[in-house]
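re: ur msg from earlier - yeah i can do the magnesium ion complex, just paste it... oh wait u already did. ok heres what im feeding in:
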Amino acid sequence: MKDFELSPYAPILMESTRAIGYSLETAIADVIDNSITAMASIIKINFFPIDREYVSILDNGIGMNFFQINCAMQYGSQSPNDSRMSNDLGRFGLGLKTASLSQCRVLTVISKQQNNIESRQWDLDYIAQTGKWSLKILDEQEIMKFSGIQELMEMETGTLVVWQNLDRMKLGETNFELAMGRKMDEVKRHLSLVYHRYLSGEAEIRKIKIYFNEVAIKPMDPFLENKSLRAMDDENIILYGNKVVVRPYILPHISRLTSDEIEMLGGREGLRKRQGFYVYRNKRLLVWGTWFRMMRQGELSKLVRIQVDIPNALDDLWTLDIKKSSAVPPAVVRDNLGIIIEKMAEKSKRTWTYRGKREIDDSICHIWNRFKMRNGGVLYEINREYPLIEELSKQYPDIRRKMDILFKQIEKNLPLNTLYLDLVNDEKIDNDTQDGAKEIIAVLEEILCYSDEKDKQELLEALMISEPFCSYADEINKAVARGDLL
Ligand SMILES: Nc1ncnc2c1ncn2[C@@H]1O[C@H](COP(=O)(O)OP(=O)(O)OP(=O)(O)O)[C@@H](O)[C@H]1O
Ligand SMILES: [Mg+2]
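and the outut:
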């Protein structure tokens, strides 16, 4: 066997990794993760949208020396397989580079440790010229031109990250300044949610302050802890010697919330949409407002939010993505979370006061609901929350009323007498034949092809916990993996 070294071609690899799919807020959060890992207590984001526009992120963390900053700028500076300190928010050895260069063409890092200042710069246009991994070292004069440098100089240790030539942020914007103002509002909201436990200085974690253009960002607590109900004691799931802590909350009813609180919880619309699990890795929020296809987002669980704390030692199991914006729980955790969901559903089970109690109250979404009436008797009713029905009424709001009239007529005109006769005569009723997996997948494909690209995933998740699809989870997951459905 022979081998030779075949390195990636820098200009192309660097341009390609820009398309990993960061949004402005996830990119800024990836840089802030580094500051938090570097023990910073103050992080200042400054954004200047006019003329020679830039974004800068300054922290008072431990800073970097000559070797550390070289390592920091290298793509793949640390293996995802290395074990990390338990407070490290990093994993891939990429974030600083990929997140920054997904938004800009020039990334400068200036770091201070006591009297030593180091600076490095990746400039994509310069790399296109040299055709090599040419990392620039700036001289003192160049360093002193950066906004924020004075503040760094006054710190004992710290790091300043600057993004210039914001080509990706400008893409498709006619009025950049205005568009940026809006995007930056989104960034602020994102940071105040993602780091809310650091910002509020929860016990056992170092409190940090994040400033955005000199204004302190306030924590946005998605559980409204001082007003919500702790639905049950914490559940600990032990995995390979590591603890995953699960803490369910039930939010107060909307009538008991102030308008600020409603806003904090995601607005009236967000209240329902943001129910579900809130997964934190080292106390930093990773994914939220999802039931991981274990249950549908329903009215019954509208007020349920479940905090799940995972340590970074379990990254492998949770299949974390590079942007750290998605994480899928491993099977063992799903099983345990399933049990917790059931307990919660039991607690928040609603009594249907106006017509009796709904009979079937499992976590599956049925097409027909059966009610036991208070005055005796039963009532079958088409479930108006069945995902397809909800999707239709969302798509065609003007026929919602007509649909309801139609459903009522179907419900009132069930051919009960003939049904009864057929059943007692042991007739084979064809409506009752179950579809096979193939037919189910074909039906799903047809349903999904009519819905908007952006709604597909959500609809599929809702259908997977609805009958009849919930009985075919394995087949559906395989079809998704093959790329047949999404
Ligand atoms: N603000 C900072 N202060 C001190 N060191 C830093 C700072 N930013 C980056 N570093 C160093 O640079 C290294 C590389 O950072 P980078 O974000 O590229 O990768 P990572 O954090 O190790 O992993 P990930 O790709 O998951 O973010 C970090 O591990 C850290 O040692
Ligand atoms: Mg990082």
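cool cool. Residues 229-347 form a domain with the Ribosomal Protein S5; domain 2 fold (CATH 3.30.230). ping me if u need the other ligands too
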